Amino acid sequence: MKNKGLLSVLLLLVSLPLLAVETRTANNGNLVMEDIPQIPDTIVQDLNRYQNVRSAPFQSFSQSGDSLYITTRFGDVAQLHRVDKPAGARHQLTFFDEPIGSVQRRPGNDHIAFTMDAGGSENAQIFLFDPKDGSSRLLSDGESRNGAVLWSNQGDRLAFQSTRRNGAANDIWLLEPDKPEAATLLMESGDGSWWGPSDWNSDDSKLLIQQYVSASDSRIYLQAVGAKDKTLLAGSADAPTTNFALAFDSKDKGMFLITDRFGQFQQLAYQAFDGSEAKPITRDIPWDVDGFAISKKGDRAAFIVNQDGFHALYLLDTHSLKYQQVDGLPIGLAGGLQFDEQGKTLGLTLNTAQTPSDSFVLTLGKKPLEYGKLTRWTYSEVGGLDTDKFVQPELVRYESFDERRIPAFVYKPNKQGPHPVVISIHGGPEAQYQPSFSSTFQLWVEKLGVAVIAPNVRGSAGYGKEYLSLDNGFKREDSVKDIGALLDWIATQEDLDSSRVAVFGGSYGGYMVLASSMHYSDRLKAAVDIVGISNFVTFLENTEDYRRDLRRVEYGDERDPEMREFLEKISPSNNVDKINVPMFVIQGQNDPRVPVSEAEQIVAALRNAGKPVWYMNALNEGHGYRKKENRDIYQQAVVLFFQQHLLK
């Protein structure tokens, strides 16, 4: 029962002795801070420029291809803007109090379907926006969780994923924008996995359907519109593999997909619908393919390869299946690939350690593999900072308990050491730290003089399917041991101070912070847990219905007695006697992924044990802080926390 775990938390809270907790609020009462000291004006002033960095990721071409739609923040949250020429002015189009989510331009005109939720709840709704008059109207039901929005080629229908049937199932629906109230159920999910539409065929009679069961099990289906049955194209329950549907080919005779069935990495492949085996395209590239886009004609495509955390861009001739890397891109990350309707240009977002996400356009030649100039369209403000002086990360590999080499990115100050260290642990766990622009890391390096290390512990994506599976189920704490090995490595570095180390992380990374504090308190000075899992059993019982089974595949099924005993044993909330490091817990009240009860129970347990803990909860946020006014105070408080507990 979903509320069973929450009830146990409440019983814990009411059974605790009354403790004197100093509470204050900010941002019209939306940000609640407990036992957090007043932040000195010197910190606010020092951080001001770092907190006024913007970004401008590419979202779509206009119908004519002459303008770009981007998202950027002029006020408190990111909104939709239009840019009409390279380095041109950004014309704000939407003015909502909540940030814009996904953006999909309607084929044939400039109407835009976008998603937006309220207060970080992730119950995203679908809206239709008309840039000519600035009007928008609701297309979804206003209550359910909606996403994976996909326009038909004719622009007369939307396929999308929604929980509107029962609040839990990830079904696929169809609607016509002129009569959204008549939305119809295309595919009913019969399990707890994720389902969504991937591509329409040329006459909009069929859809490629994606099923995601886990990081190592995903399947592709073909379904005709109006039909109940669907045909399995790739993947199976008996022999799980990773398969992601990308697009139909130009003649609807087959599909492009990403799959790991040919080796350790996720390769680009082509599979005909005649029953023949898929053909790997990128067999000679020993890294994951991360992104893909195909032109409207279907004669050319582009894809991204994740090479040890950095991105490379390739062009593909979809008929010969030959590809070529695009030279001259800055070393960093790329995303948001999209061709204009004429197939003459490719829009994308680029991000490096020294430049935030900005929009670029690559001019294409007449032949599929020909390309010309890469033009930067947006120049995001960086608060007056000289980002050329930002520290570039160094990729290192250190040895863990089983002799496995763990990759990590290290940011070091340009000053004499030894430096205090902040270990930043990514979430997921099926994710990967990649060296993107981070004003936060640079702020810590410059203002606090600390080194920042971002490891990709076992279970991280990007290093092959074996590495991805090394922390599953009963092997969960092996990834925590990788942090212990990192502490050992730090002790061998003359310019790093192993006596002053902090851990920092969000979501699953928050669990890793708490678990590291359990096992290595004697080697840590401070810990910052952001929306982290403090007890796997209560987390699985209380996370939203639509994602519970997805998480059970990764963490284990708490309904199994043996697994439940193991999860209780390793959960930080049951081991606060082992946590002897100052803790800062940060949470969003409306978090649907890691419920606020996860933060409340670890804070209560630490306080009951008489251990120091700062607690911050934003009542208008969810899984992380998206509103600038909240992010600013959170970042300032983290700096104060490090000053008081790490640097002394």
TrEMBL record:
Q: Which GO biological process entries does UniProt record here? A: proteolysis
What Pfam families does the record point to? Peptidase_S9 (PF00326)
The record's section on SUPFAM superfamilies has: alpha/beta-Hydrolases (SSF53474), DPP6 N-terminal domain-like (SSF82171)
Q: Which residues form the signal peptide?
A: 1-20
Please give the Gene Ontology molecular function terms for this protein.
Answer: serine-type endopeptidase activity
Whether Hydrolase counts among this entry's keywords is yes
Q: Which InterPro entries match?
A: 6-blade_b-propeller_TolB-like, AB_hydrolase_fold, Peptidase_S9_cat, Peptidase_S9A
Q: Would I find Cell division among this entry's keywords?
A: no
Every copy of the Peptidase S9 prolyl oligopeptidase catalytic domain together lies at 435-646
Highest taxon of the lineage: Bacteria
Keywords of this protein's UniProt record, alphabetized? Hydrolase, Signal
Name of this protein: S9 family peptidase
